[in-house]
Write a structure and sequence with these properties.
GO cellular component, one term: cytoplasm
Number of domains: 1
Number of strands: 2
InterPro entries: DtxR_MntR_Metal-Reg (IPR050536), Fe_dep_repressor (IPR001367), Fe_dep_repressor_sf (IPR036421), HTH_DTXR (IPR022687), HTH_MarR-typ (IPR000835), Iron_dep_repressor (IPR022689), WH-like_DNA-bd_sf (IPR036388), WH_DNA-bd_sf (IPR036390)
Organism: Aureimonas glaciei
Helix content: over 70%
Strand order of the largest sheet: 1-2
Largest sheet: 2 strands, antiparallel
Number of helices: 7
Structural class: mainly alpha
Family: Belongs to the DtxR/MntR family.
Main location: cytoplasm
Strand content: under 5%
């Protein structure tokens, strides 16, 4: 850590031990892994609400990815118990997937509303909330909520 560019002694001290730093990185990696699942279940839920079904081709169009990428992700979501699907059929959320979509949407709204309360423009708040929502812990979300309730 000593030779890292831009790190002062105070920054190094605040970062803590290598073990504490590793734990922080692990939390970020975990957030990145759940981010994809959350985005997919939200989009599946939105597609079902708008069109009555969610198809792999629709997901590929929405996310701008290949059909193969969607297929791999949907297989992971099936493995994790978030969706049900059969080859060449629509994709449906399980109760666990529906709950994840709702929780993710609620986190997004809370983060967006907090940013708006700080004076961030609506467009920037919407865009930034999409990234922040996946990385904010329960304590921070509770603080956002308490701030908004004042």
């Amino acid at each position: 850590m000593r030779g890292e560019p831009g790190m002062t002694d105070a920054t190094r001290s605040a970062a803590g031990s290598p073990i504490r730093l590793a734990a922080r990185f692990a939390r970020v990696r975990e957030a990145h892994q759940s981010e994809l699942a959350e985005d997919y279940v939200e989009m599946i839920d939105d597609l079902i609400a708008a069109r009555g079904e969610a198809r792999a081709a629709d997901l590929a169009d929405c996310f701008g990815v290949s059909a193969g990428t969607v297929a791999r992700t949907v297989q992971r979501l099936i493995r994790d118990g978030l969706v049900n699907s059969e080859p060449y059929r629509s994709i449906f959320l399980t109760p666990l997937g529906k709950r994840l979509a709702e929780d993710s949407r609620a986190r997004h709204r809370l983060v967006r509303d907090f940013l708006l309360a700080l004076g961030v423009s609506a467009e920037a708040a919407e865009l930034d909330a999409e990234g922040i929502e996946h990385h904010v812990g329960p304590e921070t979300l509770a603080a956002f909520s308490a701030y908004l309730e004042r």
